Amino acid sequence: MVERRHLVLTCLFLIACSSALASQTIVFEVEAGRQDRGNTPIFVSLPQPMWRADDLRLTRIDNNAEVAVQILSSEEPQAVWILRDRLLAGQTRQYRLEATDTMPKTTPLVTCADNGEKLLLSVGEKPILKYQHAVKEAPDGIDPVYRRSGYIHPVFTPSGRAITDDFPPDEPHQHGVFFAWVNTTVAGHNVNFWDPKARTGQVGHSAIEKIGEGDVFADFRVALLHLDITNMDASQPVFNETWTVRAYNLDRQFLIDFESVQTCVADSCTVNMHYYGGMAFRGLRSWFDDQSVALVTSEGRDQRTGNESRPKWVRMSGPVDSDTGGNDKLATLLVMGHPSNFRADQPVRLHPDKPYFCFAPMIIGPFTIAGQQSYISRYRFSIFDGENNADTNQRAWTDYAEPPTVRILPTDDR
């Protein structure tokens, strides 16, 4: 009898908790700010009583339309959704967000799949990018020292065209999207993590830590290891790095957020003054010395006038072969730096002839990352077919750097 009573009380308690969770509701207001907004990712910090919600329901109040929303799990969870209907500059819009029991499971619209060698982010049937976690051997004719893991390639346009390269013959150490320092001092000696032929530094994939999917975004978090291999018999770790890569449910353009956290596990690492290194991007080898390929910065400078400048974004575009008819069409990669980055707006290396650029804060002087200190970098990529104008690119950067303001309304304002 006692056991039965205990069971009944337990069930009643669980039902009460579930009901309390389901009744958790907030109303918030989104303010566009100084520009029109549309197809903009929005992040809403959840109040603590909603942190354990199984799922969320988001409703636009003025028309009662339900909006796809997804929980971003972290120490302080957030609700993430995409503001698709245009919100004009200076205007506001209100939404209701409710904690719910687990919603019926459906096939996620944005996915992350592991084929044993690469992680593939896709929206619907469209591939967005691949992350190489297995070691890839250097192609025939290239020194085996260039074997590598821990980079992104290929990056695709929405029409399915790859716009990055891997082991290009002119610079076989360059790989799609990669991150490494060139000229560093560790324990009193020089270490080059950028180019394996120096045989002093090495960067590679370490572990897959997280994979997420949903109707708003898919993401992965991976660990990389930067090694000092000056003494091959006793290599030493210098950085434990994590990448968090998140792609959103947009299919006319691809939008990806990238965050790198490099934690120094040596006593310290000094990144010496140098004219390149850092977060880098390599375009197609067919774009090498192609006058139709353009690197343009937010300041309107090109690859011959913008080197070592400090732009908010860099756009690289070039011709790709059409799947229908064989006509060349433009494909574009836009990379935006976040204003919270070290030395933002960061200096850039724009190569005058090669389809390559990088954000290189050491251009303006050396800096030291102390032991157990973390160096954090954030960038947003926009990939599309064709070519956007400077105003469109600037609006994309503002969406990233100055997102719409979200204000949770007090009870009496709802």
Walk me through this protein's architecture:
- With 414 residues, the protein is mainly beta.
- The chain has two domains: 2-105, Golgi alpha-mannosidase II (Immunoglobulin-like, Sandwich); 110-401, Beta-galactosidase, Chain A, domain 5, CATH 2.70.98.
- The chain has two helices and 28 strands.
- A hairpin with a 5-residue loop joins strand 24 and strand 25.
- The termini are far apart.
- The model is unreliable at 1-23 (pLDDT under 50).
Secondary structure layout plus pairing:
Blueprint: H1 2-22, E1 25-31, E2 40-45, E3 55-60, E4 65-67, E5 70-72, E6 78-83, E7 92-100, E8 110-114, E9 118-123, E10 126-132, E11 151-155, E12 177-180, E13 184-186, E14 189-191, E15 201-212, E16 217-228, E17 236-248, E18 254-264, E19 268-271, E20 278-282, E21 294-297, E22 313-321, E23 328-337, E24 348-350, E25 356-359, E26 367-370, E27 374-385, H2 390-401, E28 405-408
Antiparallel strand pairs: 1-7, 1-28, 2-6, 3-4, 3-7, 5-6, 8-9, 9-10, 10-11, 12-20, 13-14, 13-19, 15-16, 16-17, 17-18, 18-27, 19-26, 20-25, 21-22, 22-23, 23-27, 24-25
Helix content: under 10%
Task: Report the C-alpha radius of gyration, rounded.
Answer: 24 Å
CATH class category label of the largest domain: Mainly Beta
CATH overall fold name of the largest domain: Beta-galactosidase, Chain A, domain 5
Number of helices: 2
Secondary-structure element series: HEEEEEEEEEEEEEEEEEEEEEEEEEEEHE
CATH architecture of the largest domain: Distorted Sandwich
